Amino acid sequence: MEEGDYYSVVIRLLFAWFVLSALFLHYRSRILSTNKKQLLGIFSRLIAMWLALFFFCTYYHLFITNTLLPVFTFLLNHIQSDYLATLTSQVNATGHIKIEIKMLHDIPPLSPGVVFSQYYHFLPTLQTIVLLTAILTAWPVKNLRDRLFLISLSIPLSLFLLMIIVPFLIVDQFETTFIALANIKNIIRPEHIYHLWVQFIVNDGFFILIIFMAVLATQLQKKIFNSPAAI
User: Fold this and answer.
1) Which end of the chain is more exposed for a tag (fewer CB within 10 A), N or C?
2) Whole-prediction pTM value?
3) Separation CA 83–CA 114 (nearest Å)
């Protein structure tokens, strides 16, 4: 492992420690007042729901992907203006999205009108995002109304996360290709500012966003129903 990699690991661990510490301090009283039976119930619901949603998304990933493709296409073509993208799901390539682009501007050594394609593996992202619904399903609440509210809220929050993650991952994938092609021709292509956002996502930021959305949902549930956590 290179020296830079060590620094990256240390920073990620420190950031994870900071997030977990902040969550513990915020929920300290609830955590300390929770008995073993309650903890067992929370983790049982968490594991059961996560596994159920994991296999559901794996089995129905093609339907889910086709449903989301128009939105991904729209966002992809609006967060950049260098090319026009067309997204299609691949039946024979499990969990992959084919992205075909037509260059609109000159990106040396590529010229306008050039067409080529790449693939994005969407299934792992889909399997990860269901963790949010699993967390909110397992969250301790006083009654069924509050639990149904959290589960319902997890759907738009999950979609929102996908909207701010997937298009940028795809764009960054193409940017990596553009930079590599430019380097072959000894052309320097600067990295876009959203590359920092992508680096955050791929370096455990995805899970941090899921936790943040879970906390946001529980705080909203508490404010609307004025319901403290229970089992």
Assistant:
1) N
2) 0.84
3) 9
Which among 48, 213, 215 is positioned nearest to 138, based on CA atoms? 48
Contact 215, 23 (CB under 8 A): yes
Each residue of 169-217: pLDDT tens digit? 999 999 999 988 888 888 888 888 888 899 889 887 898 899 889 989 9
Q: Are 118 and 99 in contact (CB under 8 A)?
A: yes
Using CA atoms, how far apart are residues 125 and 90, in angstroms rounded to an integer?
Answer: 16
Tokens standing for residue 214: 């879970």
* CA–CA separation, 3 and 40 (whole Å): 41
What is the gyration radius of the CA atoms in the chain, in angstroms? 21
What residue segments make up the domains of the chain, in order of their start?
Answer: 33-66+123-225
Strand 83-89's sheet: what is its strand order?
Answer: 83-89, 96-103, 115-121
- DSSP track, 39-85: HHHHHHHHHHHHHHHHHHHHHSHHHHHHHHHHHHHHHHTTS--SEEE
